[in-house]
Amino acid sequence: MADHLPPELVRLLDAGDDHARERAWTEFLAAYHRLVLHACRSRTHDYDGAMDAYAYVLERLREGNCRRLRAYAVDRRSAFTTWLVVVAKRLCIDLARQRFGRTEKGAADLGDRDLSRQRLVELTAEEIDLGTIPDPSEQTPETQFDAASLHEALHHAISRLDPQDRLLLALRFEDGLTAERIASILRLPTPFHVYRRLTRILGLLRERLDRQDNPVV
Amino acid sequence: MNSDSSSPHLSNGDLAAFLDGRLDAPARSAVEAHLADCARCREEMVETQMALSELGPSRRVPLARPNTFRRATWIAGVAAAILVIAMVPRLRQSSLAGRGDEARVRGGSASSSIIVVSPHADAADAGHLVFTWRSLEPDATYRLVVTDSVGAPVFRTTTRDTAVVLPAAIPVARGRSYFWYVDALRRGGHSVSTGVQSFSVPR
Question: Less CB within 10 Å around the terminal CB: N or C of chain B?
Answer without folding.
Answer: C
